[in-house]
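Hey, sorry to bother you again with one of my protein questions. A protein chain has come my way and I'm curious about its shape. I'm sending you its amino acid sequence along with the backbone structure tokens. I owe you a coffee for this, so here goes:
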Amino acid sequence: MRKPTPCCVPSKQRAELLTASRNASATRQLAFNGSTEEMVLLPGRAFLMGTHFSGGFPADGEGPVRKVTLDSFYIDIYPVRNRDFARFVKETRYVTEAERFGWSFVFEGDLPDRGASLTKHNMAQGAEWWKGVERADWRHPEGPQSNIDKRPDHPVVQVSWNDAASYASWAGKRLPTEAEWEYAARGGLEQKLYPWGDELTPGGVHLCNIWQGKFPMENTSEDGFAGVAPVDAFPPNGLGMYSMTGNTWEWCADWFDATYHALSTHENPVGPSMGTTRVLKGGSYLCHISYCNRYRVAARSSNTPDSAATNIGFRCARDLAASAR
């Protein structure tokens, strides 16, 4: 009898990884105490995660398409807003990492004053449109000459993964896993590019806040916004979720890895047990097809857990109480 070729035999390393992944899924962090106001309960089921889209970024690990099964969970219909985060800070006196560092990254086109006080970290290599601005933080997203007084319903930005996780814990919630986020973003549709289908602007209608024009020099703002928009500026998807693509990137619970998901469990996956960057999903108002075509639901990116910028926010998730599961 012919022996199977090595490619057909599961390696010990893969078997160990799968076992560890299943154990991580079974013992994943759960949160039961948060209010379910402005959340939607998504029933547990299987869906097709990932994409074979040829216009994606292979290095990001968007594929392969795989069937993922999730338990039922709640998720915020809106990203966390400035007014929500303000209540958290008022009650806990929490100080964000950007505030502790004394600076954060601001998109150059958003600077209210081109002579803003820049730090020694005044640009990101390969992305010179990012400027390190002194005293830029969640209250002053574009630097000390800006404020959020007239933006209570904008998503909070300039928050790191660590800040987002702290807020979620205070609220009795948690950050969604990447799989949960993508399930919610798909809006009940299967293998579509966007929460509403495969056409970016059906009938010429803009359904998310991204860059129009020539990035990074000219934003024609055809969607109505040159910067971050209110969380309800565009219609919700089929599951009632707002602002899942464009506007601001959203932190997910998972550590980022470009290949881990191809070998891990597909039941309530939680990502690898360690890493250097955390998953970001959804794209932002700065995404453009010529540079960052990541406002598709399967697209993914990452950043270090202490990073913050004018285009990064988050939303929370919550589990069903044990008696209701």
Observations:
- Residues 12-26 form the longest helix (15 residues).
- Residues 1-9 have pLDDT under 50 and may be disordered.
- The longest strand covers residues 249-255.
